UniProtKB/TrEMBL annotation, chain A:
This is Sarcosine oxidase subunit alpha family protein. Keywords: Oxidoreductase. One of its GO terms (molecular function) is sarcosine oxidase activity. The keyword Lyase does not apply. It comes from the Bacteria. Residues 886-973 form the Aminomethyltransferase C-terminal domain. PANTHER family: AMINOMETHYLTRANSFERASE, AMINOMETHYLTRANSFERASE, MITOCHONDRIAL. Belongs to the GcvT family. Residues 597-868 form the GCVT N-terminal domain. It comes from Mangrovicoccus algicola. GO terms for biological process: tetrahydrofolate metabolic process. InterPro entries: 2Fe-2S-bd_N, FAD/NAD-bd_sf, GcvT/YgfZ/DmdA, GcvT/YgfZ_C, GcvT_C, GCVT_N, Sarcosine_oxidase_asu, SoxA_A3. Residues 497-582 form the SoxA A3 domain.
From TrEMBL, chain B:
GO terms for molecular function: sarcosine oxidase activity. The lineage of its organism: Bacteria, Pseudomonadati, Pseudomonadota, Alphaproteobacteria, Rhodobacterales. It comes from the Bacteria. This is Sarcosine oxidase subunit delta. GO terms for biological process: tetrahydrofolate metabolic process. Gene3D superfamilies: Folate-binding superfamily.
Automatic annotation (TrEMBL), chain C:
It comes from Mangrovicoccus algicola. This is Sarcosine oxidase subunit gamma. InterPro entries: TrmE/GcvT-like (IPR027266).
């Protein structure tokens, strides 16, 4: 069809696209919907439940019907509104939710079954048998009722995220938004103007009006050009502000390349988090329709949408240009559409208006006191039934515009507990109090929908925002707009037989609302859930207020008494891909690597995740076919010769200051201030409630300089708690803290030959037992002058050290230790062997320090000093903890071939296995190469008095149990002679 | 949310770690005994309304802040360095 | 001198660099870093003549630069000094202060480009108002769930110090952001 005159489409250029495989052409400036309508296509989809044929009713993002899938394969994007999809050359679109073709959908049988499928049908029907719901009913229903389908393939597109900050965020670039942005921009404020459309202007592009005697789009272009020259103004088109959050933070999605045939390797969409000191909500208004019998056929649209298609895109919605167009309106707004169409030469049948005093703006017939009571046309409108004074007549009609008034887009104003308030004069809910702080509704969103009033209201909103921000305003001259008749009368639906749709997307009719009323689902919240009104992609933008009005009528109450409808984010659907902000694959979360990572990789290590860290778990050698072979070998090597292990992941906190010792006395349960310089001490940290939460070593490097070591898992928590103690509890202590975890590559060198190995690289330092005894520490140099810190500490129970060098040398040091110790049998070991060695030695670790255990339970209650105060000291002595009798014990299976399962609970041999007889649990277990069987650690009631007793370990979850013998937790060298040699 | 940092200005709450009631700063004297500690550890206010609470600027300057916030509206009425608060109360 | 050969945070023998359109990324393993904290009652020192900046500030003089990290705390940088014991040198210049070696605790990446490109990159990485990253400003913030120090050395240079262990993740984040940002320019 030829376009009407005066549109904003570049007809000089042609864009080819396909819909359901058929080739069409459109032009730059088109949406998919405008291009299809220009090609005489009305039918664009099938409804959710009844599979009724549907066409677009709107020209914007409120569209409930014309949902299509764009693209194909992994890039297929379902549920895209054809009314906002910007046309590009090569666009491929397909219709959704039909079995068979769009024209012949066999699931339309649902429509015949409609009498049985009323609201609440599913809840009442698919109750029995219960097991059928998940397996049969739900899958079948989901398949039959639904929207588009996902491809099921990984999303190949790139997404991005970003953060912008401004003085003023203006949401919507229509009459009010442009005026506000211009005023704030000229005043020098940092302004972001966000517009969901690809072209600024809002309804100014659609209304067909004049400003200062020139087409309104000319003024839009002038303002846009001026805004582009202002460095303090950023105009973001194709950007939907979808949510308002605390303190002026907004979520927005920018569709960066959805309108391009090729993204060119760039991002598809960007998630913006915009922080604005003030905001103007100039989101416009959404027209509502008037339900009447069979009001959902393709070819029945909102009258304002018809006006938009005619003025902005030069298209009308009939299938043939000669088909007559009618308007059904309860206000003057509908008449404006009729008058404009008539002036453009479109055949206008007339305006059907229930008001007896309905006006006539010229060029069409007015059917005053009349309503539309029926329609015909299976796949598109062919005729309407007009009833006036009880007399009905059928009139040929190819396009019907419906205008029931405008609902201000209050969505963002209600995101923060803002309750919209009913304005009886405007017949609309307006933004109410309690919405997001600093958000100023303006223009049609605030009920100021006329062009002149919207522009003026935009200026008012900007002035208010600038005043709040203390920015002096700058003058803005607003052009004169034409008068726009806007009288309307409340008229919510046409009563009568048949089905009159309220919510097109969810197939909710006036009857369904009546049924909800009958079933006592009267509060708005119940109505919504019972009927599904207002759900799915459009969130009831064109339906909610009308439904509320119908319910009000049924209950005999006024609309404000019936309830209000508020909205949650997002304003329009946001893809999960963009919410992820591109954080997929390697970007999903940070990974921390140890300084010897690449060395371990080259050695063939298998890695394991420990929090964010990747640690070498074990180092398989050729011929080893099971991880246990590798781990057993590594553990034996440490006991027999020497092993090396990267332990950089342990947290390290540098503590300095005149009061460092005093401070650490308060942090650790045991005494630290008395630690001599050059010595290391094992320490316990308690929570204030008296339970253990971390352990590790503390080294005193100087008179007022300590290094605290934490477990890998608690490094951040311990640091945070130490800062809390320093700043909030004891701010007058002279102490300074800083983390140095990553600064030093720390390598455990463990085993009877560790001293021999270290001596070979220690630049002549005396590491003899006399010069450098157990628990000594000091600064040395290694490998010809490299600064190093040496600690003689042991986790394995063997003679052992930890050596720290600047992290950049960790890799080279590992390699050097391997070279230097080749003849000593030096063996790298991973976290598995580390665990075996510590279990054999009976050292508590994360599994024992699980937040529920005490120093007493691990046999270290004497470490909780009574000579000083420390965090948790008082509470550790309270009755409930002091009377705790469970103690850490070792456990070995009576049958040497049996397993020991961590998590199993412990019972006396003949006791019933129930809660009342539970005596403890197994915390850790492993195969011990040293003992030759599985071994375990666990907490057992009166454990220290039950050596050699045989008890039962039961795992009721797995249905297993085993007989275990209670032994000392120190399977290796209980006297500790090895580590002191 | 935005936390008005007394030294750095408004900063996004993403940079902060939340702890809770600022009463956690009022650690009892060790001589006060078990009951006082029990109250300190377990009994804290959780008002619907104005609340003084501790936030740690973990991804910032590592300051602990005492933030006064209305838990109903999320309105923030003020923020100060916890060290200043702690020194004042000593 | 030790005969051990150091490795950069990204695991290379030489610093990594990469160019995307108007932006270039480079790893800076040569910069030494040490923290400096005032002890109780101490007066802020002026190590090497450097006036230590206030909150959010970055100052430089004679090969040294310092940025504020917290009340009474700074990080001090010395380009080209990574192999020296810079912490010891700084401690000598700042008597009565707590100084801790940080050179290998962090990895420094610098992004160079024109101011507009750097600002476009920065707004995709960190949630900070433009003023916090104006030339001469520095702050710790969060970037892709990682703590970083972001420093605007001058209009054409943005430096990021991230945990050394997570250097690969930080580089990946920077590289991806720069790539996405410049993809449209390059095609």
């Amino acid at each position: 069809m030829t376009r009407l005159s005066g549109h904003l489409v570049d007809t000089a250029r042609r864009l080819s696209f396909t819909f359901d495989g058929r080739a069409f052409a459109g032009h730059p400036g088109d949406t998919l919907a405008s291009a299809l309508l220009a090609n005489g296509v009305q039918l664009m989809g099938r409804s959710f439940k009844y599979h009724r044929p549907r066409g677009p009713i709107a020209a914007g993002s409120e569209e409930p019907n014309a949902l299509v899938t764009l693209g194909r394969g992994a890039r297929a994007e379902p549920n895209t509104r054809a009314t906002v999809a910007e046309l590009f050359d090569g666009l491929e679109a397909s219709s959704q939710n039909h079995a068979g073709s769009l024209q012949r959908d066999w699931l339309a049988v649902n429509d015949r079954l409609a009498p049985f499928l009323a609201a609440g049908f599913y809840y009442k029907t698919f109750m029995w048998p219960k097991a059928f719901w998940e397996k049969l009913y739900e899958p079948v229903i989901r398949k039959a009722a639904g929207l588009g389908a996902l491809s099921g393939l990984p999303d190949p597109d790139a997404y991005d995220r970003g953060y912008r900050h401004c003085d003023l965020l203006v949401i919507g670039a229509g009459a009010a938004g442009l005026a506000a942005a211009l005023a704030a921009g000229r005043a020098g404020a940092q302004v972001i103007l966000a517009e969901e459309d690809f072209r600024p202007g809002g309804r100014l592009l659609a209304e067909g009006g004049l400003l200062d005697g020139r087409p309104a789009p000319d003024w839009v272009a002038e303002v846009a050009a001026e805004l582009a020259t202002l460095p303090n103004v950023r105009v973001m088109t194709r950007t939907t502000v979808f949510g308002a959050y605390d303190h002026g933070i907004f979520g927005a999605v920018e569709r960066v390349s959805d309108h391009l045939a090729e993204a060119g390797g760039g991002v598809r969409q960007t998630l913006w988090r915009i922080t604005a000191r003030r905001s103007v909500l100039a989101a416009g208004a959404t027209e509502r329709h008037i339900p009447f019998r069979d009001n959902d056929r393709p070819g029945i649209m909102l009258a304002g949408a018809i006006r938009a298609y005619a003025n902005r895109w030069g298209v009308t919605g009939q299938r043939q240009a000669a088909d007559p167009v009618a308007i059904f309106a309860n206000g003057d707004d509908g008449h404006r559409t009729a008058a404009q169409l008539a002036a453009k030469g479109v055949p206008v049948l007339g305006v059907i208006d229930p008001r007896r005093d309905a006006p006539n703006l010229g060029g069409y017939e007015t059917f005053a006191g009349a309503t539309v009571t029926g329609t015909r046309g299976r796949l598109g409108l062919t005729a309407i039934e007009v009833t006036r004074g009880g007399r009905a007549e059928w009139l040929d009609c190819g396009l019907l515009g419906v205008s029931g008034g405008w609902n201000p887009n209050v969505h963002l104003a209600s995101h923060h507990r803002g309750r919209p308030v009913w304005d009886e004069a405007r017949l609309a809910f307006l933004p109410g109090p309690g919405g997001p702080a600093g958000l100023i509704p303006a223009g049609a969103a605030a009920g100021q929908g006329g062009t002149a009033e919207a522009m003026a209201d935009g200026l008012r909103a900007a002035a208010q925002a600038l005043g709040d921000l203390g920015i002096a305003p700058a003058p803005v001259h607003l052009p004169a707009a034409e008068a726009e008749p806007a009288r309307q009368e409340a008229f919510w639906h046409v009563p009568g037989k048949g089905r009159a749709w309220v919510d097109f997307q969810n197939d909710v009719t006036v009857k369904d609302i009546a049924l909800a009323h009958q079933e006592n689902m009267r509060p708005v919240e119940h109505l919504k859930r019972w009927t599904t009104l207002g759900m799915a992609t459009d969130q009831g933008k064109t339906a909610n207020v009308t439904a509320l009005a119908v319910m009000a009528e049924l209950t005999g109450k006024a609309i404000p008494e019936t309830g209000t409808t508020i909205f949650r984010p997002p304003y329009t659907g946001v893809s999960l891909g963009v919410l992820g902000g591109g954080d997929t694959g390697r970007g999903f979360r940070p990974t921390r690597l140890t300084p010897s990572h690449s060395w371990a990789e080259a050695e063939g290590a298998v890695f394991t995740e420990v929090g964010a860290w990747m640690r070498a778990q074990y180092f398989p050698r050729p011929g080893e076919t099971h991880w246990r072979e590798s781990v057993d070998r590594e553990a034996r090597a440490v006991r027999a010769a020497v092993g090396i292990c990267d332990v950089t992941t342990l947290g390290k906190i540098d503590v300095q200051g005149a009061d460092a010792g005093d401070f650490l006395n308060r942090i650790y349960a045991n005494m630290m201030g008395t630690l001599p310089v050059g010595k290391v001490r094992y320490g316990l940290m308690l929570r204030e409630d008296g339970h253990l939460y971390d352990d590790g070593t503390c080294a005193r490097l100087g008179e007022d300089h300590y290094v605290v070591t934490t477990t890998t898992a608690n490094a951040g928590t311990v640091y945070r708690n130490m800062e809390f103690a320093r700043q909030c509890l004891w701010p007058d202590l002279d102490v300074q803290l800083i983390s140095t975890t990553d600064a030093w590559a720390q390598i455990a060198v463990a085993g009877p030959r560790s001293r021999e190995l270290l001596t070979r690289i220690a630049d002549g330092a005396d590491l003899s037992n006399q010069a450098f005894p157990f628990m000594a520490c000091g600064a040395i140099t290694v490998c010809g002058g490299l600064r190093a810190r040496l600690f003689r500490i042991s986790f394995s129970g063997e003679l052992a050290y930890e050596i720290a060098v600047p992290a950049r040398y960790g890799h080279a040091l590992m390699a050097r230790l391997m070279e230097a110790g080749a003849d000593l049998g030096v063996t790298p070991y991973g976290t598995e062997a580390l665990g075996v060695l510590r279990i054999e030695k009976g050292h508590a670790a994360g599994a024992e320090l699980n937040g529920q255990t005490t120093a007493r339970m691990i046999g270290l209650e004497k470490m909780v000093s009574r000579k000083k105060d420390a965090i948790g000291a008082v509470m550790s002595r309270r009755g409930g903890l002091a009377s705790e009798t469970r103690r850490l014990v070792g456990l070995v299976p009576v049958d040497p071939g049996a397993g020991v399962v961590p998590g199993s609970h412990l019972f006396a041999a003949d006791a019933p296995q129930d809660t009342a007889h539970d005596q403890g649990w197994i915390t850790s277990a492993c195969f011990s190469p040293h003992v030759g069987t599985m071994i375990g650690l666990g907490f057992l009631e009166n454990g220290e008095a039950r050596m050699d007793e045989v008890i039962t370990a039961a795992n009721p979850l797995e249905g297993t149990e085993a007989a275990l013998r209670v032994v000392s937790a120190h399977f290796v060298d209980p006297e500790g002679g090895r580590l002191r040699d | 949310m935005l936390i008005p940092h007394p030294l750095l200005g408004p900063r996004d709450a993403q940079e902060f770690t939340y702890l809770g009631d600022a009463a956690l700063m009022n650690r009892p004297d060790p001589a006060a005994g078990e009951d006082a500690f029990c109250d300190h550890v377990y009994l804290r206010g959780n008002p619907a309304g104005v609340h003084r609470e501790l936030w740690f600027h973990e991804q910032g300057d590592r300051s602990w802040l005492v933030v006064t916030r209305n838990t109903l509206t999320h309105e923030i009425l003020g923020a100060e360095l916890a060290t200043d608060v702690a020194r004042r109360s000593e | 001198m030790t005969d051990l050969i150091p490795m950069t945070a990204l695991g290379g023998a030489a610093p990594r660099s990469r160019r995307h359109g108007a932006l270039s990324l480079v790893e800076r393993p040569d910069i030494a870093l040490a923290s400096l904290a005032l002890r109780r009652g101490a007066v802020a020192p002026a190590p090497g003549g450097l006036v230590l900046p206030g909150p959010g500030g970055l100052a430089s003089a004679d090969g040294l630069a310092a940025f504020w990290t917290g009340p009474g705390q700074w990080m001090v940088e010395a380009a080209g000094q990574a192999e020296a014991d810079f912490a010891a040198a700084l401690a000598a210049m700042a008597p009565g202060c707590s100084v801790t070696e940080q050179t290998d605790g962090w990895a420094c990446f610098e992004v160079a480009g024109d101011a507009a490109a750097l600002e476009a990159l920065a707004e995709r990485l960190v949630n900070l108002p433009a003023a916090a990253l104006a030339p001469g400003r520095a702050t710790r913030t969060v970037l892709h769930h990682m703590g970083v120090f972001a420093l605007r050395r001058d209009p054409g240079c943005l430096a990021l110090w991230g945990m050394r262990s997570a250097a690969g993740s930080l580089w990946h984040a920077l590289d991806q952001a720069a790539l996405r940002l410049t993809a449209f320019d390059e095609t």
